Request: fold
Amino acid sequence: MPTDFTGGQQWSFAGPNPDESPTLTICRVDPDERHGHLVFVVVDGTWTPTLTNVQRGPSLFPCTEECVRSSVSKLLSTNADVPDIETDYRYFADEYGAGNVGVFDLPLTNYLESYKRIHDARKART
Reply:
């Protein structure tokens, strides 16, 4: 089944903070038996989680097509620079293949808002 998403597309989306203008860049799209396609995106311009903390800047998210479709609002570019995600992609692919991790399947803003609340709560305790 074809997909609407391809590597190099850059989209705007509503981030967790209304004063920000985050972007979502599609790095690659892989066929997947469980989900049809996995869309690997990098989010920039808002707070994003890492394995141990929350950072400002790009972070790789393996998503279902529905996750991306429900997250994006406007196509900004079809030939955006795609960051090197190979290390994170390989790590994910190995863990996903082993059944140890899943993919993002809700709008990304839901996840980002939750991670930001967790980060703020941790920060308030210190």
